[in-house]
Amino acid sequence: MSSDLYIYYRVAAGNAQQFDQAAAKMLAGLSLQYQIATALKRSPEIKDEHHTWMEVYSSVPPDFTKIIDQAVAEHGLAALIDGPRRTEFFVNISSCA
């Protein structure tokens, strides 16, 4: 069963443009290399001078968090993120009729 991966964290509002460019480049590369759908999202509001950002990866392989950790390091994203990156997996379920 494939799963979707959601990763969220906080980035200072002043770093939003720099982070957006670096993260978008990372996601585009991962999407191309692993043939998966990706999305980068950001909360519309600023809280405590930060936005909450979210990376979304659809139908990822089981070891994909290791791949992402390496990509984050290669693209220098960790320096722009304040606090931990929280990771959650979700699976599709069938709805009751």
Automatic annotation (TrEMBL):
Pfam family, one: DUF4936
Top-level taxon: Bacteria
Protein name: DUF4936 domain-containing protein
Source organism per UniProt: Collimonas fungivorans
Lineage: Bacteria, Pseudomonadati, Pseudomonadota, Betaproteobacteria, Burkholderiales
